[in-house]
Design a protein that fits this description.
Number of strands: 12
CATH superfamily of the largest domain: Carbon-nitrogen hydrolase
Shape: globular
Order of helices and strands: HHHHHHHHHEHEHHEEEHEEHEHEEEEHH
CATH topology of the largest domain: Nitrilase/N-carbamoyl-D-aminoacid amidohydrolase
Number of helices: 17
Structural class: alpha/beta
Distance between the termini: 40 Å
């Protein structure tokens, strides 16, 4: 029982490190109780049960909203949703389960191996909702600035390494490891202050924006959705002139989104409000395909991006041609088509990258888009999550993309948490969850590149090769010592 308490203590510490508590500093110790409990366990079967308990505990405390989402949007009975929640919790937390199970073995070989393994697991396992533990640091930007060098890969590595060093100090009384862990924690804010003082890149231009959060819900009647949308446009009328209007995902009224003359309607809104441009999200049907698309419309141009990373079981279903024949409500859901070209949207001499909804948490993907753009806009409909905690978890990961790419980031949500984040990860302006309103902001546009943008594609190989090399060298040394 004592071992299970250690395991559960870590799950609680992880929970306290994120919204609504935001005790980010716990990131540097939250694994210690769990790895202590697992280290005391010699039996592999018991170790497996403890690891599974760890994953399920983290899921229950932090991803519980996924079960309610399946029930509400999948039109599933509550009992089936909770039954499906068991395999979902195991799969979704596989990185934690595998990490904990293998920790004693890897720790004895080389103290760095567990720290390399975790980011490999979170990035290479195709999770339904990808995540990184470095998002636990996002509410304290002073700890996140090194992300511009090595992204969430590096931050995850540092978090696990620090936890491992503290654990080593605990069981081996190794003062050198304690000093190393403390130095890592101190170096992070030191790098923040040095980097922000040295990086004096001036914006080449500014973009005047008005960002709306209309709080339009799926349960609203079509007439209500339309009224809310146009009431919001009425509110911004006096402040919209010569600005770019940013409309979040799922905010257009149904009759506009599905209209054949949608572009003409949006052009009329642009002219009526005397806007420079409108950036909006819509569904586009073409040749029996349905795309989740982001449109940048100005008086003289039209550009479009089709979402590439679709949400599993939300926007696409594997074997949909079979599923649609089943007598279940979710069988009638549209199966979206993935876009093929990752590109920023262009407006005059400005390029805006628009990773849609959960695309904003894919670090390598977003870095490719952001490298060729001057601003990141993440249009989102967080109503799917049915939980404020889930909405803020989404924002926490998206927030890191501002740091990784040294760009201003706008998270434009229909009813979640709308915010403007500067390249240091600080929130400049925001609208609280479910608060109907709008933001007016003059956004600096930047061109510079970060180290992470240039090496992001190589990091999976760097971490994989480093892990294999360290493992091989340790194994070779053990073999020579035993012979």
């Amino acid at each position: 029982m004592k071992k299970y308490l250690f395991i559960f203590s870590s799950a609680i510490l992880i929970t306290f490190s994120v919204y609504p508590f935001n005790l980010s500093f716990l990131s540097f110790i939250f694994f210690v109780p769990a790895i202590y409990g697992i280290y005391l366990t010699k039996d592999n079967r018991e170790r497996l049960f403890l690891s599974l308990f760890f994953g399920i505990s983290i899921f229950v405390l932090n991803f519980f909203w996924a079960i309610k989402t399946m029930e509400f949007y999948g039109k599933m009975p509550a009992t089936i949703s909770y039954l499906l929640g068991i395999p979902l919790s195991i799969y979704q937390t596989l990185p934690f389960i595998i990490f904990l199970f293998t920790f004693p073995y890897l720790f004895k070989k080389n103290i760095v191996l567990p720290a390399i393994l975790f980011p490999l697991l979170t990035n290479l396992i195709p999770l339904i909702f990808p995540y990184s533990i470095s998002s636990t640091l996002s509410s304290m930007p002073v700890f996140c600035k090194t992300a511009e060098i090595w992204g969430e890969w590096g931050l995850d590595f540092l978090i696990v390494l620090t936890n491992t060093l503290f654990f080593s100090c605990l069981i081996n009384k190794n003062k050198k490891h304690l000093i190393t862990a403390v130095l890592i924690i101190l170096i992070l804010p030191l790098y923040f202050f040095v980097s922000t003082s040295l990086n004096k890149e001036k914006p080449f231009s500014h973009l005047e924006t008005v960002i709306i959060q209309p709080c339009i819900y799926d349960s609203n009647m079509p007439e209500t959705k339309r009224d809310k949308f146009f009431q919001m446009l009425k509110k911004i009328e006096k402040n919209a002139e010569n600005k770019v209007l940013i409309i979040p995902e799922s905010s257009l009224p149904d009759d506009i989104e599905r209209a054949e003359d949608r572009e003409e309607i949006m052009s009329a809104i642009l002219q009526q409000l005397n806007l420079k441009a409108i950036l909006y999200n819509t569904l586009i049907q073409e040749n029996n395909n349905v795309f989740n698309s982001e449109i940048l419309l100005s008086r003289n141009s039209f550009d479009r991006y089709n979402k590439i990373h679709l949400m599993l079981f939300g926007e696409y279903f594997p074997l949909h041609f079979i599923i649609q024949k089943l007598p279940f409500p979710f069988a009638n859901y549209e199966n979206f088509t993935s876009g093929k070209i990752a590109k920023p949207l262009r407006f005059q001499n400005i390029k805006i990258s628009t990773p849609i909804c959960l695309e904003g948490i894919y670090q390598n993907f977003t870095s490719k888009l952001a490298k060729n753009s001057n601003l990141i806009v993440n249009p989102t409909d967080d109503e799917w999550f049915l939980s404020n905690k889930a909405k803020m978890l989404h924002f926490a990961q998206t927030r890191l993309k501002a740091v990784e790419n040294r760009r201003y980031l706008i998270t434009a949500t229909n009813n979640g948490y709308t915010a403007i984040v500067n390249p240091d990860g600080r929130i400049v302006k925001d609208l609280k969850i479910d608060k109907e309103g709008y933001l007016i902001a003059k956004i600096p546009l930047l061109k510079g590149e970060t180290i992470f943008q240039n090496i992001a594609g190589f990091l999976p190989y760097i971490f994989s090769l480093t892990f294999l090399l360290l493992f091989f060298l340790t194994w070779k040394n053990e073999k020579s010592n035993n012979s």
